[in-house]
């Protein structure tokens, strides 16, 4: 269950980051989002 908490934590951080960037009127680069998505997938499958 630790992996589930870790993945949820990463998803929350990613959502907060994206929402914050949108509120400032900034474009969210695809690179960090893709990297975060990959990291979440690795953590999820690893757990």
Overview of this structure, please?
With 47 residues, the chain is mostly helical. It has one domain (2-46). It has helices at residues 2-23, 30-46. Helix 1 packs antiparallel against helix 2. The longest helix has 22 residues, at 2-23.
SS elements, strand count: 0
Task: Round the mean pLDDT to the nearest integer and report it.
Answer: 72
Number of domains: 1
Distance between the termini: 8 Å
Judged by helices, strands and strand pairing, the structural class is mainly alpha
Annotation field: number of helices: 2
Lay out the secondary structure.
Elements lengths: L1 H22 L6 H17 L1
Task: Give a quick summary of the entry.
By secondary structure, the protein is mainly alpha-helical.
Keywords:
47 residues, mainly alpha, 2 helices
